[in-house]
């Protein structure tokens, strides 16, 4: 009994000591150099700000730090997590934002996840990816943000339950999930591939949405870019195999990221925001580099593949009765906009017979679009797609299953045996955000 009590006491003391170390920050690992302790001069800030605008666009800062209808850079955007709601913070140069932050403060927040005063940031802010940003790019971003208009908007409180509202516990999270070091250029790969890795992994932080997470919401490195579910919406597999399965090639992917439209469909939901606020502003060279990296190539693909529609995969078998019922639903509800053969109508609706959404493993995105609809969207270059109405009241779960199975087998080239029960689960999970009308 005495040994047991001593063992328990030892564990308790050890746990308390570890908690103390975590709370004190003694176990934090910084990648920020001492050089940033020297403040930037006014002339340096003016010179760096234009470059910082490009960095801010590539890092997609505006989309997250500007609430719908809110002041620019003033925060307030809600993010739903398994642990509660987190609101993006004000990053304008006001007192409520980063107005009192030094150059070093900004570097530590962006790359270490620790704000002034030792306050840990929640990893909804992708500092795990921004950790890989260069010192020069972080300086430029700081110079750009600190010269924006001040927005005196108070930060909204987060809605996290205990113990997730205890920021010091993020020391343990960082110890487990924050990379100890940052990637350096791989001398065995081309400059194009290395630039693409930097754009995709650090600046663009693609993995933050497209990589599945563990129970603690850390990125699962062994499954990088294989797809994930974010706020109930599917971010597809963007490994080379996943992209090829959706019908992309390097040049067509670069075009999609720059315009939001391709033979594979149009960007919707969060991906539309990525294109609208971020990737359409990126240099063509960076889009090509990112595409080359995602396809794991050292040279760009043929330019021609951006203009050639991806061939539809060969249909897979489906029971004749299911096909007949689904075809009737499609002709009555979908063909008027998407064409009798799924060819789409320019400036009205995207093609379905080459649509990436019908080739992904999960049917959720397509089913949600059918049920909840999609808003009208304006894409770069003046292109637009008309609004798609939702058909939740027109299709019961059995008819929806038939339609989804038929489209996935006819134009997605994959076996599909979804049941009405599967449709009911997706229908029940739909929120107003999935309709993309907020």
UniProtKB/TrEMBL annotation:
Spell out the Pfam families in the cross-references: Cytochrom_C
Q: Which keywords does this Swiss-Prot/TrEMBL entry list? A: Heme, Iron, Metal-binding, Signal
| SUPFAM superfamilies, A to Z | Cytochrome c
- Where is the secretion signal located? 1-19
Q: Which domain of life is it from?
A: Bacteria
What InterPro entries does the record point to?
A: Cyt_c-like_dom, Cyt_c-like_dom_sf, Cytochrome_c-type_DH, Membr-bd_ADH_cyt_c
Residues forming the Cytochrome c domain are 47-149, 191-298, 321-411
> What protein is this chain from?
Mono/diheme cytochrome c family protein
């Amino acid at each position: 009994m005495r040994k047991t009590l001593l063992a328990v006491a030892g564990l308790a003391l050890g746990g308390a000591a570890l908690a103390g170390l975590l709370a004190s920050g003694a176990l934090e690992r910084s990648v920020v150099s001492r050089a940033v302790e020297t403040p930037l001069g006014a002339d340096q800030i003016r010179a760096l700000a234009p470059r910082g605008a490009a960095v801010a666009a590539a890092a997609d800062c505006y989309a997250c730090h500007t609430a719908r209808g809110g002041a620019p850079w003033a925060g307030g955007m809600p993010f739903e997590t398994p642990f509660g709601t987190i609101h993006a913070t004000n990053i304008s140069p006001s007192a409520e934002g980063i107005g009192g932050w030094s150059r070093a403060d900004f570097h530590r927040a962006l790359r270490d996840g620790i704000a002034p005063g030792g306050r840990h940031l929640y990893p909804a802010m992708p500092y795990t990816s921004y950790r890989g940003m260069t010192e020069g790019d972080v300086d430029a971003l700081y110079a750009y943000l600190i010269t924006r208009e001040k927005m005196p908007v108070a930060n909204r409180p987060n809605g996290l339950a205990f113990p997730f509202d205890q920021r010091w516990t993020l020391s343990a999270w960082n110890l487990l999930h924050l990379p100890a070091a940052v990637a350096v250029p791989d001398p065995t790969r081309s400059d194009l591939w290395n630039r693409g890795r930097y754009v995709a992994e650090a600046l663009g932080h693609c993995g933050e949405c497209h990589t599945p997470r563990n129970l603690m919401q850390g990125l699962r490195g062994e499954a990088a870019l294989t797809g994930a579910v974010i706020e109930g919406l599917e971010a597809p597999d963007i490994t080379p195999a996943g992209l090829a399965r959706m019908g992309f090639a390097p040049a067509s992917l670069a075009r999609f990221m720059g315009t939001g439209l391709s033979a594979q469909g149009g960007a919707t939901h969060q991906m539309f925001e990525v294109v609208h606020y971020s990737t359409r502003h990126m240099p063509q060279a960076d889009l090509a580099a990112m595409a080359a990296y995602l396809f794991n190539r050292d040279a760009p693909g043929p330019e021609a593949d951006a203009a050639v529609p991806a061939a539809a995969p060969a249909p897979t078998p489906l029971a004749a009765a299911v096909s007949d019922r689904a075809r009737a639903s499609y002709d009555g509800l979908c063909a008027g906009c998407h064409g009798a053969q799924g060819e789409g109508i320019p400036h009205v609706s995207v093609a379905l017979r080459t649509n990436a959404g019908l080739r992904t493993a999960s049917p959720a995105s397509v089913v949600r679009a059918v049920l909840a609809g999609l808003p009208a969207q304006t894409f770069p270059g003046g292109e637009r797609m008309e609004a798609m109405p939702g058909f939740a009241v027109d299709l019961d779960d059995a008819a929806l299953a038939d339609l989804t199975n038929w489209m996935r087998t006819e134009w997605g080239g994959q076996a599909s045996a979804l049941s009405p029960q599967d449709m009911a689960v997706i229908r029940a999970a739909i929120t107003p955000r999935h309709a993309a009308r907020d």
